[in-house]
Amino acid sequence: MLLPSLSVSVANVGLPAMAAAFGAAFHEIQWVVIAYLLAVTTLIVGAGRLGDLAGRRRLLLGGIAVFTVATLLCGLAPNLPLLVAARALQGAGAACMMALTMAFVGEAVPKSRTGSVMGLLGTMSAAGTALGPSLGGVLVALLGWRAIFLVAVPLGVVAFVLTLRTLPGGAPAAAARRFDTAGTLLLAVTLGAYALAMTAGGSGPLTAGLLVAAGGGLALFAVTEARVPSPLVSLSTVREPVLAAGLTANALVSTVMMTTLVVGPFHLARALGLGPALVGLAMSAGPVVSALTGVPAGRAVDRFGAGAAGVIGLAGVIGGTAVLAVLPAAGVAGYVLPLVVVTAGYALFQAANNTAIMKDVPQDRRGVVSGLLNLSRNLGLMTGASVMGAVFSLAAGADDVTTAAPADVARGTHWTFAVAALLVAAGLAMILVSRPRSQVAGGPPAARADRPGRAPSV
Prior knowledge:
- This protein is mainly alpha-helical.
- The protein has 3 domains: about 1-175, Growth Hormone, Chain: A (Up-down Bundle), CATH 1.20.1250.20; about 180-230; about 240-458, Growth Hormone, Chain: A (Up-down Bundle), CATH 1.20.1250.
- The protein contains 19 helices and no strands.
- It has helices at about 1-20, 25-30, 30-55, 55-75, 80-105, 105-110, 115-145, 145-150, 150-165, 180-200, 205-225, 235-240, 240-270, 275-285, 285-305, 305-325, 330-360, 365-395, 405-435.
- The longest helix is centred in the middle third of the chain and has 31 residues, at about 240-270.
- It is globular, with a radius of gyration of 21 Å.
- It starts with a helix and ends in a 24-residue tail after the last helix.
């Protein structure tokens, strides 16, 4: 989980240097990021399902190998088109790594420690996000942009060796079933259209066309999955209230977390008048808190149960965003302290939600459900960057918030986080409605009698 997250955050820092090296405009160089995100988003569910059918360990090793080779190709790319192609290949490897790492938790870890391991995975992901900007800045300054890719190659080799030596082999969970190629392609096209609408479509006819294509693709995908004997995503599975609520809440909370990254820099710089160095320092609070709270959050899930921990985590996110919505521009502390509460709540919710969904998933569906969990997070992040950015601009009353008056930016911040609080409240309501009454009071996992064959909800 460290390497895929690091590959996103570290590449962003090197974009200006890459643009200068290749003589590329901004709209061209941004494809270095978009290609990676598109590959991860479109392939992650299919990668999880293929792991269920062909063997998760085998595909995870293949994904790490592809990721490592593609990372090397990124560092050696002689021109921008080849760099973008290598980034897409790197994203394909990352999709396998992200989907199957979480799927392995059910096989390699006792249920009593599932929360701790999920918290550790969250910590590693947050560490990659936090480490990327600082590490990337140093590498670009000292060695050039190619170093941000080449430094990850030995890490990929180490990950491959550790996976080969430590993870259990096991037989494919569903070797007799066929892979749903048609459904996989339809879902990839649908997700690709939505991802492009959120990341590169702007606000004109192109975005509308992409969203229409995504909606039509989703409808066609649902029809296809209802007819094939071995679907990529069983419709009965995603209609199960526990899983549906968990995935939806995951997307909503991820939307809110991206909101902090989109709105934060403008609020700190324009409303509070901070310089770039202080803005960067204040913005680092979120990833640092997330990295530090992941493991303790996982232990809390194991001790008190995913139900109670998930509700507390969501309550923390709601409380933090509500404070950001009503607090006046009261200096750096007035922004950072609620942000710390939001981030800690997010870490607790993630550990609880992932544990609740994954710990009782049938063996032959672990890969695809893990893929859906990762997908819901990615879709939330992309939606947050686009939709919540538009809410911020609208609330500030400015087409360009970089030149808006401080009071307008502060107003935009408050209204945007008010919307964010409502989104998380909706997610919490779905979680509470979907969960059995016996889990409302929480309690350690051993004290609960979850229904057989159904993953408990947070």
